[in-house]
Amino acid sequence: MSEIGEGLRRAAEVMDRVRADCVWSQQMTHEKLVPYLTEEAAEVIEAVESGSAAELREELGDLLWQVLFHSAVSDEFTIDDVAGDLADKMTRRHPHVFAGETAETSDRVLELWNAAKADEKRERTSVLDGIPAGMPALARAQKVLGKGEKVGAGLEFAEEILAAEALEAAGEEELLPASEEELGEALLALVALARVRGWDAERALRGRTRDVAEEIRAAE
User: Fold this and answer.
1) What is the pLDDT of residues 121-132, one digit of tens each?
2) For residue 71, what is the domain's CATH number?
3) Any idea what the Cα angle at residue 185 is, between residues 180 and 188, rounded to 5°?
């Protein structure tokens, strides 16, 4: 069982004290805290990629502080409400653990998860609902394409990739990155090209992703 004890309680008490006695903290709102939340989440990712357990431990603490901060700012809920709602949600979304369903494969786990999520979000009318508009362009593009596959939309990219792979197999020039490292090099090269030509790479990808999103909604 995960260890939960004095440390978590102390963190909540420290937040209560800071909100009570720190003028800067008292002036914070959910909106004003957003940049800090974005930064801390990015630092968690960096710590994961660094492979340092000490750095990850520290950055997870900073991210937890943001959760505590938002909960302290709110007049509508507490950190205990947040934790309780999370426990309820995770219980619903793991029926193979808590409700007698069976899941022998990861695919089945995801199927049960998505079914529970769809039941919770019945007001949603599109597979794209719930994808934050503020996500970084690259992460959002990956998410939109993944959702599009479920309704058979946005597949022209897959067709282009298959065509390129066929050319490579026929002995033509290598057209596609062969590893994640090469993919990174290709992406960076495209960003460099955008910079030289005065283009905004982030805006360009956001715009093309919007086009694909419209195709997906039309297909639905």
Assistant:
1) 888 778 888 888
2) 1.10.287.1080
3) 125
Number of domains within the chain: 2
User: In this structure, is residue 156 part of a structural domain?
Assistant: yes
Q: Domain containing 201: what range?
A: 137-219
The residue count of the chain comes to: 220
Interatomic CA distance for residues 219 and 202, integer angstroms: 26
What secondary structure letter does DSSP report for 100?
S
Q: Which residue has the tokens 């990739």?
A: 161
Q: How many CA atoms lie within 13 A of 36 on its CB side?
A: 16
In whole angstroms, what separates CA 154 from the centre of its chain? 20
Q: Does the residue 60 lie in any domain?
A: yes
The verdict on residue 35 lying in a domain is: yes
Supply the DSSP symbol for 5: S
Model pTM score? 0.70
CA distance 135 to 213: 14
